[in-house]
Amino acid sequence: MRKYSLGALVAAGLLAGGLSAGSASAADLGGNCCADLEERIAELEATTARKGNRKVSLTVSGWVGEQVMWWDDGRESNTYVVGLGSTLSSHFKFTGQATISPGWYAGYVVHVEAISSDSLTINQNRSVGPAALSNGAFGGYQTQLLQSFWFIKSDHLGKVSVGLQSQASDNTAILVDGSGSLVPANWVAFEYGGFFLRDKNTGVLFDGTGGNARATYGMNSRCVGGGAVGDCNGATQHVVRYDSPTFGGFSVSASWGEDDMWDVAARYAGEHAGFKVAVAAAYNEISGGNLGVAGDTYQYFQIGGYIEHVPTGLFAYGAYGHNQSDLLSGDSDTYYVKAGLRERWTPLGHTVLYGEYEQSKGDGGFSLASTALGGDFVGNQSKMQLWGLGVVQEIDAAAMSLWVSYRHISQDDGLASSQNIDFEDFQYVKAGALINF
Q1: Is the peptide bond before 376 cis (omega within 30 degrees of 0)?
Q2: What values do phi and psi take at 189, rounded to 5?
Q3: Closest to 408 in 3D by CA, of 424, 393, 391
Q4: CA nearest 285: which of 306, 263, 255, 266?
């Protein structure tokens, strides 16, 4: 049985003709009566969703993204069907605004994420990645609130928003990537970050069982506030945020909240002499209840840049992140670069060819030895390296992108030479699609 809103049913009844007592019986309406009614109800519901009420607009948007992934850790291989990872998963969003007076607006965003299989939490022992819950457990398939906030905006003074939302430093370095390959290829450890390291000599899997430590690829980055390897502080938070108007391509943002987190960000985008250019940087600090360690404070700096030669479609993108804390000696650094060609070879849309490289290094308290293996980490440095290739095909008529990509990852532990462990390399191929609505 379909479930309809009362308003849609009433309106559909009026459109259907409002049969009176003297009209023909239902049997005389023919076999298409109900199908026609359902079509009219669907049209009304779609129209209502687009228009909102008389004062505040309502727009429904989102996407659905899924992919097939084959992986090999040197001893074991398998094929999974997975989503795109938390914050990139299939979702739907309700947005709208109203005009208070000329140049002044009020609005809202309600953003719901539908996680089928979180690619951040899959591994050798788990083919369906459940969503992580706030208590550290895993909740299986989830539909969860990603954003819910209201805002007041001025054309000349900027926008203030309050509620659960992306803070100023969320995705700062990622979002400048205009190549069309952002979803399948970025610096966050989607797909591989949950996989356990495997000893190359013994075949032991460091999955936390049998007295072994739990160790995964890239965990030496020690991201705080969401994110993995890249985009630390990448989970939405309850904050007050300010966004300035754009002046000459420049804008700034700042936010505060979440006991305690504060950050600032600056962005620029423009086009010069046939080149598209975009640069963004952000700094954030997290302390207090978010860390679970009294007196500690984490700092994270990130910067990303993108340049594209429009006539040829040649592009390059790069990002850098630096993470450190007051109580842990040492720090971690992540470097990511991607380059390729964006060209329209078919009427379907642009084709994007790219190659990528990433390196994450952690020393002292950020080394893999200290975070998982419990070895002699003083003065040692652990390192994760990734390289990959891929192709993306955009289908403009369907607001869709399809991709195929390959990645190869290696990890060094950073232990003293007497304790050194050689890990198997990890590689995977993924093919998927995302369709917007």
Answers
A1: no
A2: -80, 45
A3: 424
A4: 263
pLDDT per position as a tens digit, 28-60: 334 444 556 566 556 655 555 556 667 899 999
User: 3-class secondary structure for the chain?
Assistant: CCCCCHHHHHHHHHHHCCCCCCCCCHHHHCCCHHHHHHHHHHHHHHHHHHHCCCCCCCEEEEEEEEEEEEEECCCCEEEEEECCCCCCCCEEEEEEEEEEECCEEEEEEEEEEEECCCCCCCECCECCCCCECCCCCECCCEEEEEEEEEEEEECCCEEEEEEEECCCCCCCCCCCCCCCCCCCCCCCCCCCCCCECEECCCCCECECCCCCCECECCHHHCCCCCCECECCCCCCEEEEEEECCCECCEEEEEEEECCCEEEEEEEEEEEECCEEEEEEEEEEEEEHHHCCCCCCEEEEEEEEEEEEECCCCEEEEEEEEEEEECCCCCEEEEEEEEEEEEEEEECCEEEEEEEEEEEEEEEHHHCHHHHHHCCCCCCCEEEEEEEEEEEEEEEHHHCEEEEEEEEEEEEECCCCHHHCCEECCEEEEEEEEEEEC
- Distance (Å, rounded) from C-alpha 322 to C-alpha 345? 39
Are residues 146 and 236 in contact, defined by beta-carbon separation less than 8 angstroms?
Answer: yes
For the segment 248-275, what is each residue's pLDDT rounded down to a tens digit? 999 999 999 977 899 999 999 999 999 9
Residue position matching structure tokens 């046939």: 274
User: Over 90: is that where the pLDDT of 394 sits?
Assistant: yes
Share of the chain above pLDDT 90, in %: 63
- What's the CATH superfamily of 58-436? Porin (2.40.160.10)
Domain boundaries, the chain: 1-51, 58-436
